[in-house]
């Protein structure tokens, strides 16, 4: 007998028979199967799983926190100072001006007080092109902050650009703390004293690279930041986190801006504009989400250098923190190996998945026929993922994202009762037993859903199950319970009988 895609359609009436299994009968089945497992060698984590003590990861909810914006001209060490405050390498840093382009939020903590840091791109007067968009994002960050850290390079001193920033800060009526960066030792502190000329009070000498003076600076920051933010929005109910993924220049930032109704992130025709993951709370069709714009994933991450390499690493980290990923695909170009690799990255992370086919307004009839063929050939392994055809630039069909996201997350959260799952396994193994391998036929002793987010099932068996047979079980689970938009994991634990 061949096990695999050659299995016929599920027998008519299986769903009805499973639905007819009452809770009492299902519970008795589970009790009997568990009792049978006592004859087998079980490990501690097996017992924990059988006692239903395994818990799935929950959603993290955060209250609105005071906001501290970090501003300054390019290459004065703002992102390095952010990393020093966070205690980890979170912001992309490179010894080149203009690495940071968007305003990026990070959650920080000092002396048991939590607050939000906003890293910004370098501010320059009369900036042109993409630099003008970067400067505009820095100005927005100042408006949406409770306090501002103004970072100046003490080795260079106050420049004309710094004085322009001071004029901007004075119009905001926000508390401003002047930070003299790159003061690596006591001999350089007189250089920091020269910054009194900016008229912002005492400069705080620090070395973001070595950490010198940062603790004293943070102690002072806590005296300036309010206990309750005057600008941050209260987060009620904890919005679900959505990561926007795709190749460079596929339209991720345009989608975020259109959904937000504002120029939240820098958009430019140059590929690779976004480098740091950017969070933004967005309301679509009456529901609030946290969208995370990420850097485009290039073909060979390991061959990249500098900011692009670290941006790719940040994208992977942002995916791990998300609950559902929206993978954008440019319909005007053939589906590439790179698109498939990004989708596979989502599957490996265990996140829910929605496919967004962008630039749909530019699609003609000829390209549409080729696209459908490419989807059937290249994306057959994710045929269960909801599809949305939209235009990030015009906002066309943007509202259709919401039902697709809700469907994927509902499937991602789904848990099947143990009794129902074992009833399904009994039906499947009776109608389609596992093929004999090496003179032995594997038996499924017991099955349970160990976790959701994503749905993960564990089978206790007498022998290892073929991958095709595990895929067969996963396919039947989809046919009966939907699971649209989420990967399914079917794991096997082979257990031997106790020696008498």
CATH topology of the largest domain: Rossmann fold
* H/E series: HHHEHEEHEHEHEHEHEEHEHEHEHHEEHE
Low-confidence stretches: 1-10, 53-62, 93-102, 127-131, 264-277, 300-311
* Proportion of beta-strand residues: 15-25%
Q: Which structural class best describes the helix and strand composition? A: alpha/beta
Instruction: Just give the CATH class of the largest domain.
Output: Alpha Beta
Mean pLDDT comes to 79
| Estimated radius of gyration | 28 Å
Count of individual beta strands: 15
| Proportion of helical residues | 25-40%
Number of helices: 15
How many angstroms separate the termini? 35 Å
Describe the secondary-structure layout.
Layout: H1 14-19, H2 23-37, H3 44-50, E1 67-71, H4 78-86, E2 104-110, E3 113-119, H5 130-143, E4 147-153, H6 160-170, E5 176-181, H7 189-193, E6 204-205, H8 214-224, E7 240-245, H9 252-260, E8 278-284, E9 287-293, H10 306-321, E10 324-330, H11 337-349, E11 352-358, H12 365-378, E12 387-389, H13 401-413, H14 418-431, E13 444-451, E14 456-461, H15 467-481, E15 489-494
Parallel strand pairs: 1-3, 1-4, 4-5, 5-6, 7-9, 7-10, 10-11, 11-12, 14-15
Antiparallel strand pairs: 2-3, 8-9, 13-14
Helix pairs in contact: 2-14
Give the key terms.
GMP Synthetase, Chain A, domain 3, single chain, Rossmann fold, elongated, alpha/beta, six-stranded mixed sheet, 500 residues, 15 helices
């Amino acid at each position: 007998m061949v096990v695999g895609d050659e299995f016929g359609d599920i027998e008519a009436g299986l769903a009805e028979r499973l639905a007819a299994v009452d809770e009492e009968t299902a519970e008795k089945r589970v009790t009997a199967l568990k009792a049978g497992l006592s004859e087998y060698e079980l490990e501690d984590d097996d017992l924990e799983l059988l006692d239903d003590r395994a818990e799935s990861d929950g959603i993290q909810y955060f209250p609105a926190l005071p906001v501290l914006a970090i501003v300054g001209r390019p290459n004065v060490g703002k992102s390095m100072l952010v990393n020093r405050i966070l205690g980890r390498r979170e912001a992309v840093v490179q010894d080149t001006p203009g690495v940071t382009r968007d305003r990026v939020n990070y959650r920080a903590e000092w002396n048991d007080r939590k607050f939000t840091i906003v890293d910004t791109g370098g501010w320059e007067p009369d900036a042109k092109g993409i630099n003008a968009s970067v400067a505009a994002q820095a100005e927005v960050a100042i408006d949406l902050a409770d306090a501002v850290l103004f970072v100046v390079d003490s080795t260079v001193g106050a420049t004309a650009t710094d004085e322009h920033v001071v004029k901007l800060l004075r119009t905001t009526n926000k508390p401003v703390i002047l930070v003299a960066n790159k003061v690596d030792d006591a001999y350089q502190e007189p250089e920091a004293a020269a910054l009194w000329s900016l008229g912002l009070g005492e400069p705080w000498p620090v070395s973001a690279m070595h950490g010198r003076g940062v603790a004293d600076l943070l102690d002072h920051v806590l005296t300036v930041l309010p206990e309750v933010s005057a600008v941050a929005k209260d987060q009620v109910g904890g919005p679900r986190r959505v990561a926007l993924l795709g190749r460079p220049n596929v339209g991720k930032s345009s989608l975020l801006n259109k959904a937000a109704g504002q120029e939240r992130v820098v958009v430019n025709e140059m590929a690779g504009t976004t480098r740091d993951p950017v969070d933004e709370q967005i309301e679509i069709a009456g529901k609030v989400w946290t969208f995370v714009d990420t850097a485009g994933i290039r073909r060979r991450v390991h061959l990249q250098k500098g900011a692009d390499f670290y941006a790719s690493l940040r994208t992977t980290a942002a995916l791990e923190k998300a609950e559902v990923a929206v993978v954008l695909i440019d319909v005007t170009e053939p589906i590439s190996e790179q698109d498939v690799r990004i989708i596979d990255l989502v599957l490996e992370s265990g996140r829910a998945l929605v496919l967004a086919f962008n630039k749909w307004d530019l699609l003609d009839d000829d390209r549409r026929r080729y696209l459908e063929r490419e989807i059937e050939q290249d994306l057959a392994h994710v045929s269960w993922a909801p599809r949305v055809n939209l235009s990030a630039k015009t906002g066309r069909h943007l509202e259709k994202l919401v039902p697709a996201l809700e469907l994927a997350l509902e499937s991602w959260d789904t848990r099947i009762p143990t009794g129902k799952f074992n009833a399904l396994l009994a039906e499947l193994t009776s109608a389609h037993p596992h093929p004999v391998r090496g003179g032995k036929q594997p038996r499924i002793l017991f099955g349970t859903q160990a976790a959701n987010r994503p749905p993960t099932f564990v089978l206790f068996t007498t022998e290892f199950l073929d991958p095709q047979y595990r895929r067969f079980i996963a396919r039947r689970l989809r046919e009966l319970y939907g699971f649209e938009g989420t990967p399914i994991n079917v794991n096997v634990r082979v257990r031997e009988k106790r020696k008498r």
